[in-house]
Amino acid sequence: MGTKEKIQEEISVAEKESEQNEIILYNDDVNTFDHVINTLIYACEHTPEQAEQCSIIVHYKGKCTVKTGNIEELEPRCLMLLDAGLSAEII
After folding, report:
1. Ramachandran bin of 65, using left for φ above 0, alpha for ψ from -120 to 50, beta for the remaining angles
2. What InterPro entries is this protein classified in (predicted)?
3. For residue 1, is pLDDT > 80?
């Protein structure tokens, strides 16, 4: 493998990694832990343990990445979070 091919391969890997977006969930003073957990289980297909851990991180840190993927996969999930009254965005 030549140097030019290796550099091109590294660029291709970096481009694929950059296509990953994240849903960030933010803390609020309105929603209960149970509501956040149940919504994460439904909208993001979290296990109960994952959802509980994310809700604790959001509570204490103010925000948490709850799902990563391509934008087409994340948009409907983020809309479900928003429709449930949670504060979230895709970055």
Report:
1. beta
2. ClpS_core, Ribosomal_bL12_C/ClpS-like
3. no
